[in-house]
């Protein structure tokens, strides 16, 4: 498998292709998202991250000019929706250990079904976490997203809390990794 990982070039066309992949992946179980809503939400979020978040990173993996994977993340701190939800929901010991005043958050990781279990997800995660000015990275995943949990655990991520409720819809598993150790 020959793929290339590069930062989003800022074009609407590349973002649209990335959103198509995102929607393809997240319409699968256990996510079961609506395809058109999922694509539109991803595009909007990526554009917002690019202008509003510290250290925004959208990395896109391509093979033969087709988008086959992506990872989206950014810095977070007090005042950010995700950071504030974690501060309210995590137990005190988890907050002390993992919720630093500033950290990096991996918001999305998606790999085309045809490219799974070939090292692409690990390569995307390595690339997005490379050379960050933070000591901690956090992510959330569905409690029943077992393949994602196995991937993250295999990459060294630790379970911060197995069942955090940051929204009213469902609890998620929060995971963290120490950077620059």
What does it look like?
The protein has a seven-stranded mixed beta sheet with strand order 1-2-3-4-5-7-6. Helix content is 38%, strand content 30%. The longest helix has 18 residues, at 35-52. It has 181 residues and is of the alpha+beta class. The model has no long low-confidence stretch (mean pLDDT 95). The protein has six helices and seven strands; from the N terminus they run E-H-H-E-E-H-H-E-H-E-H-E-E.
- Estimate what percentage of residues fall within beta strands: 25-35%
Give the overall form. Answer: globular
Number of helices: 6
Radius of gyration equals 15 Å
Fraction of residues in helices? 25-40%
How many DSSP E strands?
A: 7
String of helices and strands:
EHHEEHHEHEHEE
Q: Structural class, from secondary structure content?
A: alpha+beta
**How would you write the strand order of the largest sheet?**
1-2-3-4-5-7-6
The largest sheet is:
7 strands, mixed
First-to-last CA distance: 30 Å
Brief write-up:
This protein has 181 residues and is of the alpha+beta class. The chain is built from six helices and seven strands. Strands 1-2-3-4-5-7-6 form a seven-stranded mixed β-sheet.
What's the arrangement of secondary structure elements?
Blueprint (H helix, E strand, L loop, with lengths): L3 E4 L4 H15 L8 H18 L4 E7 L2 E12 L3 H9 L2 H7 L3 E10 L8 H10 L6 E7 L3 H9 L3 E7 L7 E7 L3
Parallel strand pairs: 4-5
Antiparallel strand pairs: 1-2, 2-3, 3-4, 5-7, 6-7
Please name the defining characteristics of this protein.
181 residues; single chain; alpha+beta
